[in-house]
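Protein in question quoted in full.
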Amino acid sequence: MDNISFSLNVALILQGLGALFDLIGYAAPYWHDERYVTYHFYYGLWKRCVEKGPFGTVIVEVCTSLISGDHAHGYTRATQFFETVGLIAAIASIVLLLLGVCVATCRDRRILPILSGICSIAAAGCILLGTVIFGANDAEEDHLSWAFALCIVGGIFFGVAGVLIIVASVVLKR
């Protein structure tokens, strides 16, 4: 019984860290980052910015939205979709696991942790698929930035948490 609670606690910590990393990466406009002598160009899922001025000095910063603007490519829309679905599945997974672990009337129901594990693996799949779509279509791979990497780490954390939850709920609990 201690192994089950330990596995679920580790999974809950991984889910929390994964949600934090994915949310930061989801919102930050630093999926692509290019720096040149006279300008700095960067964008994420929702915003595209150009800073103009000598290196290290910003004279003019112009940001445009990728939601309503014409600057978004088809792969950006696909990435937005999969990252959003992944974030929703991640939140659902955390809520289901918290219900299954913390609420006394739900502790005996094995279906909640199993659903949480399935949602966690689905979140990992969507998050990682969104990063693969973006990374495969971004013109220059050496300009992928830290927000892109945070979403990858968040997706990996959700995948590991999902496997831990399913193993703890199905295999260890007979």
About this structure: The mean pLDDT is 85.
